[in-house]
Design brief:
Helix content of chain A: over 70%
Number of strands of chain A: 0
Radius of gyration of chain A: 18 Å
Oligomer: heterodimer
Distance between the termini of chain B: 30 Å
Radius of gyration of chain B: 20 Å
Number of domains of chain B: 1
Shape of chain A: elongated
Structural class of chain B: mainly alpha
Strand content of chain A: under 5%
Largest sheet of chain B: none
Mean pLDDT of chain B: 83
Chain lengths: 155, 183
């Protein structure tokens, strides 16, 4: 095991939080843009932003998972067992993240279909996009809330 | 995933989206969900702290990056196989699952190969010429270990194939529901 370094731990936590902020902020932005009245008349800009978000999402998701696991490793004995309230909260967080990843696969696939040149825009497609990005943002904010409690030992 | 879907639909006319996003999203999904699954499994068994203690931060990050990279290569390979099978009209649920089995098997082998090379490099750096007798042992171990890694990867690939097939079906239905019918 390496010598414990607070600087490394802070750096890992910083990158973890920044990448989650980018993920949730991006999802909220795409959701808001898709819901705007401008997107009804011209949906292309919102879709282009959605495609760009999808590319960034998977990069940030990889970084977030890697830093999240490192953060647990740096916590050492602070990681409590599954029988404790803290352990249950960690399990809940990981379960939500797993569902979020599966939902994101559906979202990426849906966005790719909507961005195809032959796609015909519809009110339903717009509603689905708003729901998917809104759901992503809500899930990410929920996970952040649980993570905050885990970091401060509030369970 | 979108690539899987595009081949599954056997019609690229309605889905000419960029392939790199397919490989990128699918490879990262596989890597991150595998990692989350492993952590959940360790946590439920109460051995998470002990397992993480054995790894230092740099090694952990390095392993994650290696797995991410090998999964990307294996995913790209699997999707190409799938496109090839679609071009000869055998695109089906079985072809999708088969492609993930093949991708998983190759990924198991890639990860194992990367670990063997890493250990070999570490042995040579630390022991210098003294590491030469270890090389035949590594070679024999690699053949056996590689076969085991290939098989384990294929089993994991089967599991992922079923999940991704389900996700693909969900998305296909969702998209069809949103697409206006012919007027």
């Amino acid at each position: 095991m390496e010598t414990f370094s607070y600087q490394t731990w802070f750096a890992i936590r910083y990158v973890h939080i920044v990448s989650v902020a980018l993920l949730s902020g991006g999802a909220l932005t795409v959701c808001a843009l898709s819901a705007s009245s401008a997107a009804i008349a011209e949906p292309k800009p919102a879709l282009m932003l959605a495609v760009a978000y999808e590319r960034a999402f998977w990069l940030a998701a990889g970084v977030t998972v890697a830093t999240g696991v490192s953060n647990l490793g740096m916590k050492g004995d602070g990681v409590l067992g599954p029988d404790t309230a803290w352990g249950t909260a960690l399990l809940a967080k990981l379960t939500i993240v797993a569902f979020l990843l599966a939902m994101s696969l559906v979202r990426s696939d849906f966005v790719a279909r909507c961005a195809a040149p032959t796609h015909r825009h519809s009110r339903r497609a717009r509603a689905v996009l708003i729901s998917l990005y809104g759901g992503t943002a809500v899930a990410l904010l929920g996970v952040t809330w649980i993570g905050l409690g885990l970091a401060h030992g509030r369970y | 995933m979108a690539g899987i879907r595009s081949v599954y639909k056997a019609s690229r006319s309605e889905c000419d989206h960029p392939a790199p996003l397919d490989v990128w999203s699918l490879a990262t999904f596989r890597t991150t969900s595998f990692m989350i699954g492993a952590i959940m499994s360790l946590h439920v068994r109460g051995s998470l702290t002990g397992s993480l203690r054995r790894l230092d931060t740099t090694t952990g990050f390095g392993l994650f990056l290696v797995m991410w990279a090998t999964t990307w290569f294996a995913t790209r390979r699997g999707l190409r196989e799938l496109e090839r099978s679609a071009s000869i009209d055998i695109a089906s649920s079985a072809a999708i699952v088969m492609s993930t089995i093949v991708a998983g098997a190759w990924n198991g082998l890639y990860v194992f190969g990367a670990l063997v090379l890493g250990f070999l490099a570490a042995s040579i750096i630390t022991q210098g010429p003294g590491a030469v007798p270890v090389i035949p042992v590594f070679a024999i171990g690699s053949v056996i270990g590689g076969t085991v890694a290939f098989t384990i990867g294929a089993i994991v690939g089967l599991f992922y194939g079923m999940i991704e097939l389900f996700v693909s079906r969900v998305c296909s239905r969702l998209y069809r529901w949103t697409t206006p019918g012919p007027t």
